[in-house]
Specification:
Length: about 100
């Protein structure tokens, strides 16, 4: 049996757009994406967005990123292959409550 892997409408290639950290510049980028019919994945740092004025505030996430994928990642971008387990695992602290609060 042959198995063909493809994207919607039989496409065999895909372009992905992924951006980290939820910076204020995302407001302009999301506007451009929306006008051009593009969708992106935005990886947010929920654990620090409330303390850093260069990031999108948590209360704006649902409205700004509507129609896009919102994901999360560690606070400090550790290199998993070279890091200590406890330090890498510690970077995920506080993420679960943020995910359940900000479902889109």
């Amino acid at each position: 049996m042959k198995i063909y892997t493809c994207f919607p409408h039989g496409k065999t290639k895909a372009l992905t757009m992924s951006y980290d950290d939820g910076r204020l510049q995302d407001e302009r980028l999301v506007g451009i994406f929306n006008r051009c019919g593009l969708r992106g994945t935005f990886n947010l740092n929920y654990g620090i967005m409330q303390y850093d004025r260069t990031r999108i505030p948590a209360e704006r996430v649902k409205e700004l990123y509507a129609g896009h994928e919102v994901a999360t990642h560690t606070l400090t971008h550790p290199t998993i292959g070279r890091g200590k387990f406890w330090r890498i695992a510690g970077g995920w602290n506080g993420i679960q409550p943020a995910i359940s609060i900000h479902r889109i």
